[in-house]
Amino acid sequence: MTMKHALAACLFLLTAPVAWSAPAPLAPRVIVVAGWENGADTGDAPGEYQDWVEREHLDTVVPVRGGPDKPILRRNAEGVYGLVLRNGATDLMTLALDPRFDLRRTYWIFTGISGVDPNVASVGSVAWARWVVDGDAMREVDDRDIPKDWPYGLYAIGADRPNALPVDANHYGSVTDVAQLTRAYPLNQGLARWAFALSRQAAMVDDPAIAARRAAWKGFPNAQKAPFVMMGETLGARRYWHGASRNRWAEDWVRLWTRNQGTFVMTNEESQTNQGEMRLLASRGFIDADRVMVLRSASNFDMPPPGVPITRSMGDEGPGQNVAFDNNERAGAPVVQALIAYWPRYRDHIPTAD
Q1: For residue 75, which of 79, 81, 92, 191 is within the disulfide window of CB 3.0 to 4.6 Å?
Q2: Phi, psi (degrees; rounded to nearest 5) at 146
Q3: Mean pLDDT of all residues in the chain?
Q4: For the whole model, what pTM was predicted?
């Protein structure tokens, strides 16, 4: 080969287009979503995230483009991921918009601790939701100013009194369809029942101090039970409410928006925001809303026991938190294990108890 030909060959190699393909996106099989974590993700006092990280061996930190400095995503070798929402629902959007992830077949388990209705469950108990109900958008009149026949001053936008569904969409700005005023996010109930059937026999832990506290709940037989797994709805409201009067409102509000099919069990401040975000992501093709589950565990009651002033029990979460963290993972672990064990089936076919 002459020098001229050699130079021509080199020039061709340098300028010829090179076939290149991007790496396959990461496709999590299951993402367990926790709302917060104190301190480190492992090795210290647990928050909502740590038991999941340690017991599911989520040892690998996974970077998320645009995420905060402190990692929010971990995984194990089986395709189980854990996401901690250090910035709330913004972190859901950040993950979904990262092109390195394909979340269209991912199963989601939204976890966390909650206040619990003493009429239906006890501290340490765990509930799979069929609906997440939004307790934010509503009309409010001070209870001291309400008509005498009203139970409280909270009622639906577009309605004219408590415990009534909206009839006039125009009461809410640009909304033209009264159905858009719904405050209930329905989950995949067949999937929720399937998850409950797997976890209902999971061994729940108890705590002697929590067991002793149950004695104060005279007249509330479910509040006096040892922790158990059940099905029941989650109500999210950004304001931290407490007391028997607001508990009555929560029970009524959940019944109203689920057309008497749902039962209020758990209350927290973020579930409604997270599910609104997930519905938006589903509408744009990022995730499958039928693969979303919600599992909440009780750290405290949402009202005081008989004879105790309301100000003494407001925010009394500490004693029950560790039991709630522990039982949340115990109830959810069989579901994660089943999804992984039968992934060839569940990748394309959502399990159901129906």
Answers
A1: 81
A2: -75, 155
A3: 92
A4: 0.92
